[in-house]
Specification:
The complex is a heterotrimer of chains A (301), B (151) and C (374). Chain A has 301 residues and is mainly alpha-helical. Helix content of chain A is 67%, strand content 0%. In chain A, helix 5 runs antiparallel to helix 8 and helix 8 packs antiparallel against helix 10. The longest helix of chain A is centred in the middle third of the chain and has 32 residues. The relative contact order of chain A is 0.15. Chain B is 24% helix and 26% strand. With 151 residues, chain B is an alpha/beta fold. Chain C has 374 residues and is an alpha+beta fold. Chain C has one domain: Cytochrome-c3 Hydrogenase, chain B (Orthogonal Bundle). Helices cover 50% and strands 12% of the residues of chain C. Chain C is built from 16 helices and 8 strands. In chain C, strand 6 and strand 7 form a beta hairpin. Chain C is globular and about 65 Å long. Chain C starts with a helix and ends with a helix. Classes of the chains: A mainly alpha (301), B alpha/beta (151), C alpha+beta (374). Chains B and C meet through strand 3 and helix 3 of B and helix 9, strand 6, strand 7, strand 8 and helix 13 of C.
Chain lengths: 301, 151, 374
């Protein structure tokens, strides 16, 4: 799409580029900022990255392959990943930089509002699954993924989840918090070296997390793709290990997010909030009601 | 309007104007005191309507400092050049035409910056390119031993 | 010192003043904008320029005319060829040299190619300003093809220095016509892709329609020319009004829009790319035979007098005003650069909009900073 080759010098096809980048960032100087609140300034990247790693803990990679299987898994993931915003706000505030502050404020407004949509989109599915435990949700999709089982409401929920989770992770076209052509780099303008790497890493981990939540909740997690009564086809699908299924689905969602990041121009802050409060949230609320009704009547597959 | 009619019009507004047929434009040289009025009339007169100031340049004529205004009418597509000059090199001062053509704001700041001509009634007369410690480099008597290498 | 006063006085009114630039991704060079904000809203924009003021007008007073031509490359480096042409035409006009048709046609083709590549680069950067990074890669990919054509003919890619008083430095490369035709064929297919990516995009419409409105009266009063002025309905195309080189023998439309917003400025430039291709297509097969340069005296001295030449660069009207006292150096040279006037309108059209809009407006004005600072 972009005629871009990417870095291809380190190792065969550049596969060691990431490792080289990591070493580079590790050895880079951490520039102390004059007049910055040094305690909060240093604390912020850790909050962001810890929040991201805590969310990973609850994600089921395959059957039985997760660190903790909480019975309120969905709630836990939402709650923990939302903690990152505190780090972002702290970073923007303590940097003593006006661009950072604007970026952090935008980010705060954005994440807090889109959190609602993410939550409601997930609740739509939780109603269907009847449980918040991620492993139970995956198990319930043994005979068909929720995006197919739940009629149109599930599909709407999936689209809304995709949009709002992209916004929540500050990815384009909702990357206002770090809009580089406006705010240079937003809240992490003043960070350097490994602290900057933490922010960057957290951003990509967050993207991975939302993609894997999408895969788990909507696309059946590590469950293979089954079609009704096609026995042979289903067996072939079963042959592929669940872990591969899971990673494949996650990368598919990540690909979708990358795709529209690179295609669309960026939104403006008021348009962004209008989109959330005037369109996504009402649609979502109605969607939840419809889904509850469908489940009540037992109309889903 | 052709050049002759324009010349008559300028004469009727400012009788003291010296007209000269340049190789492209009609050039009218007026004293600084009547420049503003002439410019305003040329902008507002129904048959002239010079609404586009497409070039404003400051010139150092050696003994005098001057400003050259290139005017054009987008309606009639005729053009005229106004010139004015002042012999006061210490405190040259002219009238600003910013309220007639808004583009003059930046151009006059440029002239002030490079030639040191002050403009009365200019809304925001600050130096544009250089900082206050510089002289006025486009003047012919400007000497800068450090930054300008002369052969 | 005066700057400090501004900052303190605005601080008292509880305004948030940010410095956009001198190093900032969206100012496309070392332009500094002092933006006072209220929340996300821009209250006023104060451009501070001069960071790359190189005193070109002063330098011109001590160098000869052929040297000036090559110095003008450094002003508007994206449409360097058209700058060269302006000085050349002025010198030739002053000396009353009769220029053969071949030179005129080649100059026109080169100018239009320059305009095309300038608009491509603008499109690339404008897309990037709005956050659509793919535009940048597409724009640069296609611009590269024009630069290759330039390189083959005159050795330079961006700064061509192809003009000299009385004609051109060298004749065109034998492949020139073939490659230009190939490019036009290619680009006619590619340009609709640009539309798909940005013009038809809903987010782009939301971001650009109604943003930064400039009325026709203001455009004339501020001296805003080029596609920016024409998007406001100000008919200011020098190619139409005062045809130079071979523009009097080709058919083309002057692109005029009346909306005057960012979207109109965008569409005006896209349409201009189509027109440029039309012009090149009309001329490329009809390059007359003849010499590529007229023999000139080794030392060029302009007769005493004043000379003014206007040309249409990719950004607007460039005026070259030469006062000659009969020597080999000019007495005074003034460049009326299009960007200088276009910049002055920024505060007028950007106040009241959001920061993101300021970036969009700045992008749509297509500012080249060395041309402002000179």
């Amino acid at each position: 799409m972009q005629n871009r080759l990417g870095p291809n010098r380190v190792g065969p096809f550049g596969i060691f580029q990431t490792i080289a980048d990591l070493f580079k960032l590790l050895f880079k100087e951490l520039i102390p900022i004059k007049d910055a609140d040094s305690f909060l300034f240093n604390l912020a990247p850790f909050i962001v990255i810890i929040a991201s790693f805590m969310a990973i803990a609850a994600i089921p990679f395959a059957k039985g392959l997760h660190a903790i299987d909480l019975n309120i898994g969905v709630l836990y993931v939402i709650a923990v990943s939302a903690m990152g915003v505190i780090g972002v706000l702290l970073a923007g505030w303590s940097s003593n930089n006006k661009y950072s502050l604007i970026g952090a404020m935008r980010s705060g407004a954005q994440i807090v509002s889109y959190e609602l949509s993410v939550g409601l989109a997930l609740i739509t599915i939780v109603i269907m699954a009847g449980s918040m435990q991620l492993s139970v949700i995956v198990e319930a999709q043994r005979d068909g993924w929720f995006i197919f089982k739940g009629h149109i409401p599930a599909f709407i929920a999936f689209v809304i989840f995709l949009i709002s989770s992209t916004a929540e992770t500050n990815r384009g076209p909702f990357d206002l918090a770090e809009a580089e052509s406006e705010l240079t780099a937003g809240y992490h303008t003043e960070y350097s070296g490994i602290k900057f790497a933490f922010f960057f890493l957290a951003e990509y981990i967050n993207m991975f997390i939302v993609a894997s939540i999408a895969a788990t909740v909507f696309l059946g997690g590590w469950m293979p793709f089954h079609v009704g009564h096609w026995g042979g086809f289903n067996q072939v699908m079963d042959f592929i290990p669940p872990f591969i299924w899971y990673i494949g689905k996650t990368f598919f969602v990540i690909f979708l997010m990358m795709w529209f990041k690179w295609t669309f121009p960026r939104l403006r802050i008021d348009q962004l909030l209008t989109l959330e409060w005037k369109y996504l949230l009402p649609i979502n609320l109605v969607n939840v009601l419809i889904m509850a009704f469908i489940v009540l009547m037992g109309w889903h597959f | 309007m052709d050049k002759i009619q324009l010349g008559e019009l300028i004469k009727s507004i400012a009788p003291e104007a010296e007209l000269k047929e340049g190789n492209q434009f009609l050039e009218a040289t007026v004293p600084p005191s009547s420049l503003y009025q002439l410019a305003k009339q040329l902008r507002e007169k129904e048959e002239a309507q010079f609404d586009f100031l497409f070039c404003l340049s400051g010139v150092d004529y050696g003994s005098d400092l001057g400003v050259v205004y290139h005017l054009r009418s987008t309606l009639f597509d005729h053009a005229v050049v106004l010139k004015t000059r002042t012999s006061d090199r210490e405190h040259p001062q002219l009238d600003s035409v910013t309220d007639i053509w808004q583009t003059a704001e930046f151009h006059e700041r440029e002239v002030f910056d490079l030639l040191g001509i002050k403009f009365k009634n200019h809304p925001d007369l600050r130096r544009l390119f250089l900082d206050n410690s510089w002289g006025f480099p486009l003047r012919k008597d400007y000497v800068d031993d450090i930054n300008i290498v002369t052969k | 010192m005066q700057e400090k006063e501004i900052i303190t006085s605005t601080d008292e009114q509880q305004e948030y003043v940010i410095n956009m630039g001198p190093q900032h991704p969206s100012t496309h060079g070392v332009l500094r904008l002092l933006v006072s904000l209220k929340g996300e809203k821009v209250k006023s924009v104060q451009p501070h320029i001069g960071y790359i003021h190189s005193g070109i007008e002063k330098m011109c007073e001590s160098i000869t005319y052929p040297q000036i031509i090559h110095l003008t490359d450094r002003m508007d480096y994206i449409s360097a060829h058209i700058n060269n042409e302006a000085v050349c035409l002025n010198v030739e006009k002053a000396l009353e040299v009769d220029i053969p048709d071949r030179i005129k046609v080649i100059r026109t083709i080169m100018s239009e190619l320059t305009r095309l590549q300038s608009h491509q680069l603008w499109w690339a950067c404008f897309g990037m300003d709005l956050g659509g990074l793919t535009c940048f890669f597409y724009g640069l990919r296609d611009r590269e093809k024009i630069l290759d054509i330039f390189e083959e003919t005159c050795g330079g890619r961006m700064i061509l220095s192809y003009n000299c008083p009385g004609g051109l430095m060298y004749d065109i490369h034998p492949n020139f016509q073939k490659r230009v035709k190939e490019f036009i064929k290619y680009f006619r297919k590619i340009l609709p892709e640009y539309d798909q990516l940005l013009t038809g995009n809903v987010i782009f419409h939301e971001r650009s329609k109604g943003i930064g409105k400039l009325t026709k009266e203001d455009a004339i009063s501020f001296g805003v020319t080029g596609p920016t002025g024409r998007a406001s309905g100000f008919s200011c195309d020098v190619r139409k009004h005062e045809p130079y080189s071979a523009y009097d023998r080709v058919q083309f439309k002057e692109i005029l829009h009346t909306e005057g917003d960012t979207f109109a400025r965008y569409v005006a430039r896209i349409d201009e790319m189509w027109e440029s291709m039309n012009i090149i297509e009309q001329l490329i097969d009809n390059i007359p035979e003849g010499p590529f340069a007229v023999k000139m005296k080794p030392i060029i001295k302009l007769p005493e007098g004043e000379y003014y030449q206007r040309v249409e660069t990719a950004r607007g009207e460039l005026g070259v005003y030469i006062i000659s006292d009969g020597n080999k150096n000019p007495y005074r040279v003034k460049f009326r650069s299009p960007n200088f006037s276009n910049l002055s309108v920024l505060n007028h059209i950007a106040s009241g909009f959001k920061i993101a809009d300021l970036v969009a407006i700045g992008g749509s004005l297509d500012l080249i900073i060395p041309d402002i600072d000179r």
